[in-house]
Amino acid sequence: MPLSWTSPNFIKLYSNDSTINPLPEPITESQDAWIGSLLTIGAVIGPIPAPFFCSKFGRKKALLATAIPLIVSFFSQAFAKNVWTIYITRVLAGISLGAGYALLPIYIGEISEDFNRGMLSQAINIFWSFGNFLVYATGPFMSYMSFNIMIAMFPTLFFVLFLLLAPESPYYLIGHNEMEKASKSLMLLRSKNKEEVEEEMLVISQQLKEQTNNRGLRELFATDFVRRAFIICLLLVFTQELCGFSVLFFYMQLIFQASGSRLPDQQCSLIMSVFVLLTSFVSPFIVDRFGRRTLLIVSCVGMFISLTALGAFFFILEETQISTAPLYWLPLASLISFIFFFNFGMSVPWTITSEILPGYVKETATTVITSLSWLLGFLCTKFFHSITDKIGMGRTFWCFGVYCLVAGIVIFFFVPETKGRSFSEIQDILKYGGVFQYSYKQRQEHQINKQEKEKY
């Protein structure tokens, strides 16, 4: 909800009507940019203390803590009377958002089982889409105060229900030698009795013994394998931002207004939010069937085509004398296509991150990747207006599209398929430098082994 909060609220904050705008005067374009981008500044900060709280106090308490800044943020926004209050609340919401993105994959990975880990990890995207749907479905049709009070109920409800119902991670409990609590946690998670979870407890204990302690930043670049894994993770997570995702969602209603579409911008945003929610159910059910790499490549190519079409519309609108009236449907169609392909594969990077990074650098790497990703989101949203003023909206969307195409090509050549592969095999692929190098080297070694066996 904090991500798409700006789309319906910017319309209100730009209004000269005091019954619509809670501020004493309409916001400026500069203030607009800060309100949109300060969320990402908070999200850069949020992941930094997250691993410490996660290890020191447990996954459950750390996740509960992420609700508090959101509750404060939304209630404060409801009664804001100046733009500085909104600035502060956006930073607070961003801290919660960044910490949540760092903590949720860890918690979900530790409470899930091998057969459903991929699907449950992708389910984060469903709830992200549901939050967007709620904002677009209610925000344009409610007053500023009522809307913010309404959305404040969700983190409040989460805090109460998660506190009462959710178990602590069995990995954390076993790691702190709280075996009885770990047994109860697993019994609740697996719907089994004490005897039936003993075997899994032994497996978890053995895994924790084999893991070395988390190491610092230097280890991310110490070996070729870890360095390649870290760079791949950066590429994939950066693609989530450099495809224009944050910009499109922060400014969706303003983009529809600028396009001069015949459809009201509120209706366009609502249609978009419904489509976002529906398409979010696709990835969890196909990620373990078609593989991570295939989804990523198709996603990048599809986003490239969608952004090229959207850029063409605005180029015709801004740079030519050709009427865009017959193409009034193109912005909505392009954004629907973009959302479909984004949801198709761009929720996969965090799954791959958890699969290719070794345990001893995972916390450090996740913190760095999450913070850098949100920093990139800040730069995109903060300077979106400046870039569009200089080169036009059409060329801006083309730049996002070109990056998607380049990312798809790089993924094709260098990102390994992790579906159904052991960690050691993924290591081998990264050690050999890429997908095709590995295939060639693997065939060579297989031939050598075969010759040695025949000779023996």
Automatic annotation (TrEMBL):
It comes from the Eukaryota. It is found in: Cell membrane. GO terms for molecular function: transmembrane transporter activity. The chain crosses the membrane at residues 33-55, 62-80, 86-108, 120-139, 145-166, 229-250, 270-287, 294-316, 328-352, 364-384, 396-415. Its main location: membrane. InterPro entries: MFS_dom, MFS_sugar_transport-like, MFS_trans_sf, MFS_Trehalose_Transporter, Sugar/inositol_transpt, Sugar_transporter_CS. This is Major facilitator superfamily (MFS) profile domain-containing protein. It comes from Psylliodes chrysocephalus.
